[in-house]
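lol ok so funny story. i was supposed to be doing the assay writeup but got distracted and ended up predicting the structure for this chain instead. priorities right. anyway since i did it might as well share w the group, maybe its usefull for someone
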Amino acid sequence: MNKKVISYGHSRRQFIRYGALTAGGAVLAGPYLLRGQNLNSRLNIAQIGLGVKGMSDAQWCATENLVALCDVNSTPMDNLKQYVPAARAYKDFRELFEKEKSLDAVDIAVPDHNHAVIAAMAIKLGKHVYCQKPLTHDVSEARLLRDLARQYKVATQMGNQGSAADGLRRGVELVQAGLIGPVRQAFVWTNRPIWPQGLERPAGSDPVPANLDWDLWLGTAPARPFKEKWPEAQLAEQTQLLHFSPQHYHAQFLQFSPNVYQPFNWRGWYDFGTSVMGDMGCHTLNWPFRALKLGYPTEVEASSSGMMAEMYPNSSRIRFEFPAREGLPPVTVRWLDGGNTPPAEVTADITVMFGGISSSGCVMIGEKGMMFSPDVGDDEFRVFVKLKDDKEWAAAPRHEGAKAIAQTMPRNAFDNREPADFRHHKEWFAACKSGRHETACSNFEIGAYLTEIILLGCVALRAGRKLEWDGPGMKAKNAPEAAQFLKREYRAGWNI
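and the output, tada:
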């Protein structure tokens, strides 16, 4: 397989190993795509969204039967059609659903603001759904998709692919078995954003590229003029505002920083993305969410480097308070981004052992000790343990206390030599075929719950005050003005 990578947007490690991308539209290695085609016993799948993550998903879906492609940008679709000539091409997902009568399932990898409207239509048509993280743009949409999946009894999976990793599942088992004792504090951090945020919208407009349907790209969001590049002065301002070293930028991302919206920089805009919380929270918070059995928080409070009219800030700190649940004590979970990291007293032992603090990570503090992962959580997942009597950290598989704890979670049944992303898809394929929808580890019953919690961080940032949260009622008891950030008004002509 050709493993050369020429980036067309956000790239992940598995793309480097398994895909080839070209400027203007990703092209994946032909043989890998073709080997899954025209097999009648396999699922008929449509890939909706062919940006960088969509191209990655397309190669996994092509191991089944990739019958349709959909993207508002014709360039990646034309490139991919070279390798799946039998797949029918669409710009508008609504036309796809109208015409593709043999469709079994869809994979959705479009910007956040259009996740829910596509997923809801698919579910109502009885199609199985794989949807990229964060599952939705709004809290209310996450709950809606969870309820629709229950009602229509389809197999679902949210694309936080690290859920397929044995390491993450083992990390959950160790915490729940009490290896570090009751946990009352957890810290999660990331070096992102690695795209422009904290800026004012650039003035003026640019011609819409011939290959892009801008109106369809906007979808549910309010209309606005297309703008291709950031003015150099604003990008210079962005660089000065960074709260972390430029070395933390992944080289693949740097070349895309001038773009205002496409192919990746839409994440920082209120109308389209969910900022760092949405981008990474479904990965980095996945471990504590599962291990600590987190339900709805009772308080959410955020601070930031400064909110803007239309964009998220360069850095933020968000505190979630969770009440006692299922015999577990109350726990405080702190989210840190944009170069913010846990207090030095929390990470002192980590810094000594690992020579510094990782750019992303999670640490849980229990009565008997600590557990730490330096990994993002989007692939394989390493866990380290240090109990109070231990002299140093030990990888969980080698820690004597961990060795005695039995396996309680089922493991992903597919070849662990494959990337977690592929195994996560395979788990969903199997759930679609077997009818045992609960076997998809991030089905919407779980994925929607995690998404709701994460998006509350975005709501707290935008509301600008502490939220006293009523989870079942889906409202801030002390801040009715936060309701506008829980559920958007869609643009005319777009609805669920």
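The chain has a mean pLDDT of 89. The longest strand covers residues 183-189.
back to the writeup now i swear
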